[in-house]
């Protein structure tokens, strides 16, 4: 089994809340995405919320937070703190280009029918996936056994000066920016391409929502599905910060999984014309 499958599945606030209730969304929100000057700083909020970009549910944990500089160097968050409803940190931008901020996880999820038809799951809510535990706990010949190769990624991008390219990890569902995420403007269509485990995939369901849902009855969701090249084109409905959520599932999993599922979320800033 490849290493990608045996990484811990972080079934904590980031995952369980976002999976078990559709209204709960996990996000990483920068206070600004495009900057200039010498060594400016950006502040980030990470949370799982009911109302988009409001702090009303739980914080996102920072255990798997990864920050890459424009040249791929790993950076540490500054002034990191987790409160009751959000995690916050700062980042000083010392080099020109695009900084990639993400939380991701991969693992196996199993469900089956136990005694008297009672549903069983591994890992259970709040538990962490472990390969040795999985092999002990999950019966190989259980009734209605379903094993899913699952992945989740939540990310955002900030740029100092001219935006630069960033590299995909080749694991799980990822976005390849044909249009750079820090070069988005009202009146200009953005083209994004989605990859699953390093290959462009058709049939990814994508939802895009502009901030401010708390103050309007209609969330004004934009719905898309990727074409045979894994691409979509987004026509923004106004300036502001946007939340993008994508999901994908197929039967191209590695054994013992029979299916693979990926979810992806990102925050972008769209500027006026």
Description:
The chain has 273 residues and is mostly beta strands. The chain has helices at 13-20, 131-137; strands spanning 25-30, 34-35, 41-49, 58-59, 65-68, 74-75, 78-82, 87-92, 97-113, 119-122, 143-160, 173-177, 190-196, 199-200, 205-210, 222-225, 231-234, 240-250, 259-270. Strands 2, 5, 6, 9, 10, 11, 15, 16, 18 and 19 form a 10-stranded mixed sheet that branches. Strands 1, 3, 4, 7 and 8 form a 5-stranded antiparallel sheet that branches. Strand 3 and strand 4 (58-59) form a beta hairpin. The N and C termini lie far apart (49 Å).
List the helices and strands and how they pair.
Blueprint: H1 13-20, E1 25-30, E2 34-35, E3 41-49, E4 58-59, E5 65-68, E6 74-75, E7 78-82, E8 87-92, E9 97-113, E10 119-122, H2 131-137, E11 143-160, E12 173-177, E13 190-196, E14 199-200, E15 205-210, E16 222-225, E17 231-234, E18 240-250, E19 259-270
Parallel strand pairs: 2-11, 11-19
Antiparallel strand pairs: 1-3, 3-4, 3-8, 5-6, 5-9, 7-8, 9-10, 9-11, 12-13, 13-14, 13-17, 15-16, 15-18, 18-19
Compact summary:
The protein has 273 residues and is mainly β. Helices cover 5% and strands 46% of the residues. Strand 13 (190-196) and strand 14 form a beta hairpin.
């Amino acid at each position: 089994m490849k290493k990608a499958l045996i990484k811990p599945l972080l079934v904590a606030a980031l995952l369980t809340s976002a999976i078990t209730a559709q209204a709960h969304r996990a996000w990483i929100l920068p206070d600004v995405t495009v900057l200039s000057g010498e060594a400016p700083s950006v502040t980030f909020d990470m949370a799982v919320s009911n109302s988009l970009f409001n702090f009303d549910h739980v914080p996102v944990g920072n255990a798997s937070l990864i920050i890459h500089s424009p040249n791929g160097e790993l950076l540490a968050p500054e002034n990191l703190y987790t409160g009751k409803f959000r995690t916050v940190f700062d980042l000083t931008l010392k080099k020109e280009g695009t900084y990639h901020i993400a939380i991701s996880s991969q693992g196996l999820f199993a469900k089956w029918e136990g005694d008297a038809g009672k549903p069983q799951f591994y890992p259970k809510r709040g538990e962490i996936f472990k390969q040795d535990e999985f092999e002990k706990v999950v019966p190989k010949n259980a009734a209605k056994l379903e094993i899913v190769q699952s992945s989740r990624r939540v990310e955002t991008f900030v740029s100092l000066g001219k935006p630069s390219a960033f590299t995909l990890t080749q694991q799980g569902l990822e976005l390849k920016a044909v249009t750079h995420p820090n070069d988005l403007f009202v009146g200009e269509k953005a083209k994004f391409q989605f990859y699953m485990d390093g290959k462009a995939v058709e049939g990814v369901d994508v939802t895009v929502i502009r901030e401010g849902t708390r103050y309007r009855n209609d969330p004004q969701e934009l719905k898309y599905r990727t074409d045979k090249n894994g691409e979509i084109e987004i026509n923004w409905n106004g300036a502001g910060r946007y939340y993008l959520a994508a999901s994908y599932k197929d039967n191209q999993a590695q054994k013992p999984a029979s299916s693979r599922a990926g979810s992806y979320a990102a925050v972008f800033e769209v500027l006026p014309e």
